[in-house]
Amino acid sequence: MAVTGLNQTAGRPFGVDQMRNLALGEQVEALLCQMTLEEKIGQMNQVAGSRDTTGAPANTDIEEDVRTGRVGSVFNAFGAEFTRELQRDAVEHSRLGIPLLFGYDIIHGFRTIFPIPLGQAASWHLEGIERAARIMAKEGAAAGVHWTFAPMVDIARDPRWGRVMEGAGEDTHLTSLIARAQVRGIQGNEPGATDTLAACVKHYAAYGAVEAGREYNTVDMSEWRLRSIYLPPFLAALEEGCASVMTAFNTLNALPATCHPLLLDQILRREWGFEGMVVTDYTAIMELGQHGVAADASEASRKSVNAGVDMDMQSGYFIETLKTLVQNGQVEETRIDEAVRRILWLKAALGLFEDPYRYTSDEREAQCLLTGENRRAAREQAAQSMVLLKNEGNVLPLSDQHQKIALIGPLGNTPRLLGSWRGNGDHDDTVTLREGLANRLGEDAVILCAQGVSNQIGEDDTSGIEEALDLVRQADAVVLALGEDEDYADEAASRADIGLPGAQLELARRVLEAAGDTPVATVLFNGRPLTLTELDDLAPALLEAWWPGTEAGNAVADVLFGDVPPSGKLPMSFPVSVGQVPIYYNAFNTGRPKGVDPKYASQYLDIPNAPLYPFGFGLSYTTFEYGAIETACSEIGPDDTLEVSLTVTNTGERDGIEVVQLYLQDVHASVVRPLRELKDFRRIQLAPGAGERVVFHITPDMRSFLNAELERVQEPGLFRAQIGSCSESGEEIEFTVT
Ligand code: GLC
């Protein structure tokens, strides 16, 4: 494996060169040499600091523990005043006054909530993703937070797993680029600026590969797959200067990730050269007991700290056992010092030693949250995240002439569109779809609302459908708002049946039947790919809106009425059936690919192999024509870069945004290679009739892969390049590398 050091993070806020910043190092050493063993261990202990309904700390021991130096970091505490109080307990009452590090899950917004990360990934708009991360960091930092547990970069090929909503989908290249954009947005360009946060890439590693899509379940894969598919986004985040790493709950190849020397020492430290801090996930050290690799707290602490964990989130095992482990020689004090250096270094880099209260400004908090500018950004990102899955008969965009809209479905008039991991988002701030349509159509419009059915799992009551049909018959257009409750795709929210919950399909069937020639637009609010095969048969127009966040209703209206063209492309395959899962576009051909034989081929008796909607798929309100691929030659040397290009033309009558995608196939190699792999893309905007020449450069790095010995190599031979609008279509050329 080629060793990729992190020294190319020059200039990155928390990159390796900053970590070797002498001034910060001197601050840390000056402090470290004064600390007792107990105080050092206290820095390695992170506890939850949320408030109860009265505003008091829910964790009643926290103030005493902070004052006695038993806590180095608090998570789930935010608010200038609350964090200032806790900080004062540390700075003014503990012996050395070491400031606390405040962490929080600011994943896709703090108070202004942006689309869920899977939705943002569908925008393929890296600048928009970075801007969203920038805004959420500004808001979180204004509320006293120093450190966010983001980006989440878990590759996911199984939509049964609820946390697919939190990542960027199935593709390693797209997830890696998005990870970089999120780290840039979160950390900004200046370490410790009070409108930035330290980032924490998670969950290290391969949490998205839980067996059967069942939360917290076993993960087991070849090291080839781990290093080729699941690890690159982590390296990308760290190369972008990400300050910290969070370990995953799951096992990887029979070892829990939280005590995994290959992950935490060999790869992270020796190969990648990462020098920042590693924090565990919530009680993950304690869970080594449940995993069956630790008989007690002492063994769990020993294994995790010696594997490379620096901070214990919430299990309390480090504070309870490390002192004895050091005294009896099972843990070297040098290991403790190494962990504490990383923690103190981060606090120093955030400027907390100069001014522990620098992030707690009531004024900044009052000014920065939920501003009009932030809402506008959230609305734009939400509109750009939406994916037009179907538009038969050009039902969409709706026309302003539609003045009597029947808004039918359980998600038409609800603020529960923020999604899970919604930070300090407030449903009261959310623009519902009903409000968004009213805002768009003006006060003369009539919007007739009926829920029809529930979207709760197991609630199959259809008695409300008749009322809904009455409204449909009165309307000149119908918007059908269906999907999942926002807590159905989340941590601890795996689903074995990934269809529309409740009786929503029955509602859709009856509404579409009753609508006759009245246009019906179906909008989906969900946190994972769903099985939509029956709905796809029924509905002429399908818009995937994910959970769009605070500006949901306005953003959906923007797209439904064509004010913003739909431009999203799926970051994750939508299966025909859950029986296809795991399903992903960059699969291998197998020795008996479908089609080679009517029976003896890699296929099912009862369902197709192909997904209903493939990775990279998304329609527009216009049409695009792809010209033939041009290239200067069809044979290149191993060090050459091949330029390929084609012209994309907007052949429709409306403005459109197209994500032009470049895929590559290494046709014969020493290991099997995917039929296609995303290597690059361009997001272009074209007016009707306009064309643009899109140029890609196929580099040696794009052609490289891990061989069976896990070495990064490029091999000579035949390659195919495809350029198209999704992973299943496009122009293709062949070329040879000598
Ligand atoms: C949770 C999640 C992790 C999160 C942490 C703190 O269990 O797995 O992503 O950052 O605990 O809330």
What does this structure look like?
It is a single chain. With 738 residues, this protein is of the alpha/beta class. Among the domains are: 377-580, Rossmann fold (3-Layer(aba) Sandwich); 624-737, Sandwich (Immunoglobulin-like). The protein is built from 23 helices and 27 strands. A six-stranded mixed sheet has the order 11-16-15-14-12-13, with helices on both faces. A five-stranded parallel sheet has the order 4-3-2-1-10. Strand 7 and strand 8 form a beta hairpin. Helix 7 (126-142) runs antiparallel to helix 17. The radius of gyration is 26 Å and the shape is globular. Mean pLDDT is 96; it is low at 1-5. It binds alpha-D-glucopyranose. Alpha-D-glucopyranose is lined by residues 75, 105, 149, 202, 281-282, 491.
Unreliable runs, pLDDT <50, ≥5 residues? 1-5
The assigned structural class equals alpha/beta
CATH architecture of the domain at 377-580: 3-Layer(aba) Sandwich
User: Helical content, roughly?
Assistant: 25-40%
CATH topology of the domain at 377-580: Rossmann fold
The whole-number mean of residue pLDDT values reads 96
What is Rg? 26 Å
Protein name: beta-glucosidase
GO biological process, one term: glucan catabolic process
Enzyme class: hydrolase
Keywords: Glycosidase, Hydrolase, Signal
Indicate the topology.
Elements: H1 16-19, H2 22-32, H3 37-43, E1 45-48, H4 62-67, E2 73-75, H5 80-93, E3 101-104, H6 117-121, H7 126-142, E4 147-148, H8 172-187, E5 200-204, H9 223-230, H10 232-239, E6 244-247, E7 251-252, E8 255-256, H11 261-271, E9 277-279, H12 287-291, H13 297-307, E10 312-313, H14 317-327, H15 333-349, H16 362-368, H17 372-385, E11 387-391, E12 404-408, H18 433-441, E13 446-450, H19 465-474, E14 477-483, H20 504-515, E15 520-525, H21 533-538, E16 541-544, H22 552-560, E17 624-626, E18 630-631, E19 635-636, E20 642-650, E21 656-666, E22 677-686, E23 691-698, H23 700-703, E24 705-706, E25 712-713, E26 717-726, E27 729-737
Parallel strand pairs: 1-2, 1-10, 2-3, 3-4, 5-6, 6-9, 12-13, 12-14, 14-15, 15-16, 19-27
Antiparallel strand pairs: 7-8, 11-16, 17-20, 18-20, 20-23, 21-22, 21-26, 24-25, 26-27
Residues 75, 105, 149, 202, 281-282, 491 line the site of alpha-D-glucopyranose.
EC number: 3.2.1.21
Protein name: beta-glucosidase
GO molecular function, one term: beta-glucosidase activity
